[in-house]
Amino acid sequence: MAIAPNADQEGGPRGAIMNVAMHLFGKQGFTGTSMRDIANAVGLLPGSLYAHIQSKEALLLSIVSDGIGRFLAAVGPLAAGSGTPAERLRKMIVAHVEVVADNPERSQVVFHQWRFLGEGNLPVAVDRRRQYESLFITVVEQGVSSGEMRSDIDLRIEVRTILGALNWTPEWFSPNGKLGAGEVGEHMANTLLRGILA
Fold this sequence. Notes:
GO terms for molecular function: DNA-binding transcription factor activity; transcription cis-regulatory region binding. InterPro entries: Homeodomain-like_sf (IPR009057), HTH-type_TetR-like_transc_reg (IPR050109), HTH_TetR (IPR001647), KstR2_TetR_C (IPR041490), Tet_transcr_reg_TetR-rel_C_sf (IPR036271). By secondary structure, this protein is an all-alpha fold. The chain has a domain at about 55-195: Tetracycline Repressor, domain 2, CATH 1.10.357.10. It has helices at about 10-30, 35-40, 55-80, 85-100, 105-110, 120-145, 155-165, 170, 180-195.
């Protein structure tokens, strides 16, 4: 199944359908959203949707794949960049929050609705999520090896704790809040790093 381009930038009816689906999946959940809901929100007959998309699941796969791709693109270069492991991990945490802040609704779908993909598409999302997790594992491993981070930590538990906290930010982050995404990211980095630094 082909992965759709960036849902935010895609134009025409398909772009409208993608954005409406993103909103409804975030608000009502994937299983709570019908093709009729999407069609009504876009102003099309339900049958007309299929001229632009393959299925409801294809929409979810496109949103999830595009969304994870954004996190990989923002965080991957930082993981492999310059600086100590702790400095890079801090930048990665901030970058993650900044991607969330760019579109919290999309991030909600990416983090909480991917499980509803069918068995044919679920491995695509799982593989992309593992790629992302491995960026954090590698940097923490480097921190442990250099002595900058504690050697008595369980790498996977610590990384999943960090990602678990980050992945819930779309539930409470407000683009109109007192603090910007970078500031929120710095606050989170201060808290999350404290538990693993030597």
